[in-house]
Amino acid sequence: MLYLLSQTIDQAATRHPDAEAVCCAGQRMSYGELVMRANQLAHLLREQGVRRGDRVGLLMNKRLEAVVALYGIMKAGAAYVPLDPNAPVARIAFIVQDGGIRHLLTENAKAKAVQEMLNMGVSLHSVVGVDSQVEPRVACFSWDDVVAAPHHEPVVGVIEQDLAYILYTSGSTGVPKGVMHTHRSALSWAEIAAQTYGLHANDRVSNHAPFHFDLSTLDLFSTAVAGATMVIIPEMYTKLPASLSKLIEDEQMTVLYTVPFALIQLLLHGALDKRDLHRVRWVLFGGEPFPPKHLRALMAALPAARFCNVYGPTEVNGCTYYMIPASLPETDEPLPIGGTYGNAEALVVDAHDAPVAPGDVGELLIRSPTMMRGYWQRPDLDAKAFYHRPVFGHHVDVFHRTGDLVRERPEGGFDFLGRKDRQIKTRGYRVELDEVEAALLQHDDVEAAAVYGVPDEHGSQHIEAAVIGRPPALLEETVLVQHAKKLLPSYAVPERIKILDTFPRTSTGKIDRLALRAKALEGKDQHEEANKPPA
Amino acid sequence: MKSQLRQYIQETLLENGAPHAVQDDENLLGSGLVDSVGMMSLVLFIEETFGVAVPPEDVTIEHFLSIDTIATYLEARVAA
Known about the structure:
The structure holds two protein chains of two kinds.
Chain A: H1 6-15, E1 20-24, E2 27-30, H2 31-47, E3 55-58, H3 64-75, E4 79-82, H4 89-98, E5 103-105, H5 111-119, E6 126-128, E7 139-141, H6 143-147, E8 163-169, E9 177-182, H7 183-196, E10 204-207, H8 216-226, E11 229-232, H9 235-239, H10 241-250, E12 255-258, H11 260-269, E13 282-285, H12 292-301, E14 306-311, E15 320-323, E16 339-340, E17 345-349, E18 361-367, E19 374-375, H13 379-385, E20 386-391, E21 395-408, E22 414-419, E23 423-426, E24 429-432, H14 433-441, E25 446-455, E26 461-469, H15 477-487, E27 496-500, H16 513-531
Parallel strand pairs in A: 1-11, 3-4, 3-5, 5-6, 6-7, 10-11, 12-13, 13-14, 26-27
Antiparallel strand pairs in A: 1-2, 8-9, 9-19, 14-15, 15-16, 17-18, 18-21, 20-21, 21-22, 23-24, 25-26
Chain B: H1 2-13, H2 36-50, H3 61-64, H4 67-79
């Protein structure tokens, strides 16, 4: 029986050592080699003092070594913490410090960022993946050093309830929060997804999401459960849909999993009529709603594929799914998120945690083995994130409060209706608007800030903001954008920041963000009108 | 041609955000410089400014990696 994530590759390597585990930009690695390299890395990390429960950072662009790294970290008994390589260094440094990370897996291209972090006062014991010494007080190792370590599996005494990884996500108080997953919660999801989509050893599964994004766990671990191949899509390909579609064809991918935004780009700009994508048998999407008109067009372009809406916050991995019917009704009604997987229980409750009547709107609570352990060192957040249902006298069933508002459909399954709070999805990325406001307010000249999502033409939404300056300062949008870029990942930086003298207020005196959003939409229409070519 | 491309990329796509002057041989697609929406608006800009049609299947890494590769591609398109 598998009980650790790293056992997925051990099992695959025992069965088919030469089978291709992962490929990236033409480089390929077999399961046998992946296990060997991960074991070697684990030995090196153990020698540097890494022990069960430690957190080890992963600061790398997508490449084969990143996969070796995350398995090596887990084989050393530690939890991997993937860091967004494109995030501002200050944000990466925050996570490294918050997570108590003392060891970092990286690459030469990131040596400068590591150096900057050290200059900011981050303290590291070891750095693996660099060819030269970053700093005298930090033990530095290259990938060649890793290859010199022993091949066998180190004994680390980890069990399934121990931490496997921590994914940092936007936090409403202004700093990111770490979602802790155990080997059990992650493996449960990997197995459920592999079974639901019938993954097998011949599948070639895309890896579109970066490793700090929760969609990547299906790519990594469901693929390994099935002994299939994960095809890493390098960042460059995610920006040019016609190259992405070529890669899907050339690499003979059979399963695609990404956010609707990327699939819509693929549909509109991917030259799909020029590609042979008949091998694609599954298109899985999640992260935000997929506008049905685009989905219908994509289904027509990929007639051999089945489609599935995969729903679940990072905290519970996947929890519901909706198999898209072969003929999607010709309406623009949002797609359902479907019902739970077999091994999960859903409740829909009102503001007092009382179950709502069937068909009424309420918050979705989920109990499943795929659920996180909690937030890293944030008891305040844990207190709000879980609902405890008494059972057997003094015991409790633990549910995660998703914060998502849903309504049960008459035929079963749920419709997603929005959020209880101010979290939004922008092109699949999860952002707490309050975190963006907090970032703007950190600027000395900002008196007040309001941040809101504005629907865009890509079926998603982007972030805009309005601020009031602190007199006598004269604020400039470019300065504020630069400021935000130092604190936030690029997808969370407002596309526009309006400088206002006052904010519209509601009757109770609160900032009327809906009015600001409506104004932004109005402005956008006028802008588009003005840019239209004369008829 | 290159100077127009450089100016558009620098001033419109990297608006508010260029940490440095973009070089002609710099990889535009790496490290979060230009995103996918930015690349699509660059294609529109090229079509309008240089009066050439850029079919979707040509918008690839090979042709759009850098200002240099875009210029090489466009010269071939204009000559064709």
